[in-house]
Amino acid sequence: MSSNEDPRDDLSVTPPKTWATGLPAVTHALEYSLGQTSVRRTALTLLNINQAKGIDCPGCAWPEPAPGKRHMNEYCENGAKHINDEATSRRVTADFFREHSIAELDGKSDYWLNQQGRLTEPMVKRPGATHYEPIGWDEAFGLLARELKALASPDEALFYVSGRLNNEAAFLLQLFARAYGTNNLPDCSNLCHESSGRAMQETLGTGKGSVSLDDIHHSDLIFVVGQNPGTNHPRMLSALEETKRNGGQVVAVNTLPEAGLMRFKHPQKPRGVIGRGTTIADQFLHIRAGGDLALFQALNLMLLEAEDAAPGTVLDHDFIRTHTTGFADFAEHTRKVSWEHILEATGLSREEIQAVHDRVLQSRKVIVCWAMGLTQHKHGVPTIREVVNFLMLRGNIGRPGAGVCPVRGHSNVQGDRTMGVWEQMPQRFLDALEREFGFTPPTRHGLDAVNGIRAMHEDRAKVFLGVAGNFVRATPDSAVTEEAMRKCRLTAHISTKLNRSHTVCGDTALILPTLGRSDRDVQATGEQFITVEDSMSEVHASRGKLPPASPDLLSEVAIISRLARTTLGSTPPLPWEDFEADYGTVRDRISRVVPGFDDFNSRVAEPGGFRLPNPVNSGVFPTPSGKAVFTCNAFTMPDVPKGHLLLQTLRSHDQWNTIPYAPNDRYRGIHNARRVVLVNPADLAALDIADRDEVDLVSIWRDGTERRAENFRVVGYPTSPGSAASYYPETNVLVPLDSVADFSNCPTSKGVVVRLEPARTPG
Ligand SMILES: Nc1nc2c(c(=O)[nH]1)N[C@H]1C(S)=C(S)[C@@H](COP(=O)(O)OP(=O)(O)OC[C@H]3O[C@@H](n4cnc5c(=O)[nH]c(N)nc54)[C@H](O)[C@@H]3O)O[C@H]1N2
Ligand SMILES: Nc1nc2c(c(=O)[nH]1)N[C@H]1C(S)=C(S)[C@@H](COP(=O)(O)OP(=O)(O)OC[C@H]3O[C@@H](n4cnc5c(=O)[nH]c(N)nc54)[C@H](O)[C@@H]3O)O[C@H]1N2
Ligand code: SF4
Ligand SMILES: [Mo]
Fold this sequence. Notes:
There is one protein chain. By secondary structure, this protein is α/β, with parallel strands linked by helices. It folds into four domains: 20-86, no CATH class; 92-192 and 416-605, Rossmann fold (3-Layer(aba) Sandwich), CATH 3.40.50.740; 194-406, 3-Layer(aba) Sandwich (Dimethylsulfoxide Reductase, domain 2), CATH 3.40.228.10; 645-758, Barwin-like endoglucanases. It has 32 helices and 32 strands. Strand 4 and strand 5 form a beta hairpin. The protein is globular.
């Protein structure tokens, strides 16, 4: 498809696939890459991706095997598409912005905006102007600095970070924000794994997963819950294949029978490509949306009862006694859970749950992996707390082959948090900053993503700087969010490619174009590398290999350093020029502020880098009591009135978060359309709606406001009864800003109450 066409909606449907990632997957990646750039650049990116001295895949946060164990092609289809989407030869120039007004660009699709190519020079939209025009870097920094300094309080500024940002730039951004005077550092974690961090922090004393790739390979039983690895973490399937080869089992829990959970064909092995592939899930639980808390409670109840029947043989009393608190209350609470409620909430049979329980009893080492299917529900935090209860009952925390595994999204989303990008960093981190840099950081907690939108809407926040993401499409309640952004005095974005956040802008707007992960980064002291931390706390270097997309680009480190210098001058006196010239000087600072990073520069120079220790693996639980905490969790299922469905908003196979790469979702058999809604055929019959009918999705919320997403095609699909699925970001308009997960404030993107109405204006 050419870059100037918008994909035409021309839905065709084929049966969902029952396996993932064989030869077709590889050819699809090459097709997309070669449509973007030359054979030479494609080869350069692909041969360097995830190699010890190469480019860290800018895709997801799944870790690479140890350096000696890597394939020559250590990447997946989606990683390849993703890096070549960045390495594209297409360019967005000043001429482009002269030709297209902002209003015109705002009328284009997310797909179209991304397809225009890499941004090449800084641009400004002045108050009242209809177009972006070029601006010099110094003038751009001056403008932004002036607006920041003119605010009545530093808390009127927001600094949004997405998990693409590298450690060095993330550390400098939070340093700048705090030296300027605010903790307003909303990030994409607020929309993503916030519920995981919250639940684990409270129960285990640390917000990070505890397992390594080696643990995955050598586990007896792995749960994959609320996660679609075939699309979103494809190389997780090669890890699970190894688990299976070593005799381990997999239980998949999902509202959809996702292809990657069923069977896997290894793309880099001839047998994998032509053979039947490996069966992944030994058991698949087709659970009701939001039913996972009830499932884990049921398993916990059965474990308690099995222990009653054979005392001393089921629970790990030693672990419970030595390392935990709250067991007695938890046990009492769990024994009261009724099977009637469990079966109703999960939609599963007692026999299915019994079969899982039997697998658990046979397994010494158990891991639970999860992603957005748990975190983005109203009761996401209690659900993950219950997962922790489940693992602790048999001592499956902190020993090899066992543990918690929240599977992270963006390649450095975990690292950005480690570097201090969080609106609520603990006091000990702020104290370390003060010791190292000699200024007192603000202590009042900042605004997260949802509260940031509220603040802009209510004129309490007026300057927005977004780094490495697409805030207006990533956030809920699109109409409200867009209005909030448009009220700002200034919106600015450090980006590689054009997106909707550049067209929905404040009085003044800036586009600050930057180097991507694949671009070579040369500064005054020579060629630089950056570092990232993956989902399993492995920290390693990444070196760009391609000539930069334009001579006018600055690196993220350079942009943030220059902005900080222009805004703050020498108060406090920080060596921003040195940071820009030599990223090693930033890493030296990190090594003195962030625990676990001692000798950062020398350790990260080793092939493969190093792993940050997780205290729970040494039996240390940094909670207030020094022990891991059993919790009592109540499940209240979402209230879905008759005639309504619980909608989840998820990713297709051909998109990277807010950016569609093509209008296809191959594994689910959806082609040439994104405005589709997948519904169980029995629900369709009950609602008297036919397959392929054109409907509007209407969400209801207690504020009485009706939110509508228009013109979706209905596709009968084996979603679990009572639920529906449709793609994000087209459906973000339906998620009310106030509909958030308890305790984490994460939007409930997987639990939106909707009804399907005949399309108001059929198209
Ligand atoms: N190719 C590609 N890779 C990506 C991304 C991308 O956009 N494209 N995004 C990255 C990011 S930032 C993230 S956070 C991850 C996201 O990775 P995922 O969490 O896998 O992403 P989603 O598409 O949101 O899929 C949610 C899954 O949870 C299931 N689910 C929904 N509700 C429930 C429920 O109530 N119970 C259970 N058990 N299952 C449920 C859905 O059916 C679906 O399989 O992927 C990362 N990787
Ligand atoms: N309804 C609904 N909403 C959701 C979700 C959902 O499942 N449903 N998922 C949520 C989740 S899990 C997440 S993580 C967020 C994702 O939200 P974001 O992370 O904000 O969005 P992305 O689509 O990843 O951002 C894409 C943009 O990043 C910029 N970019 C890419 N690479 C680089 C780089 O190297 N440097 C810089 N500076 N810029 C770069 C490009 O300009 C590109 O247009 O969305 C959330 N929103
Ligand atoms: S699994 Fe994730 S990190 Fe690995 S190659 Fe694929 S997209 Fe990249
Ligand atoms: Mo994410």
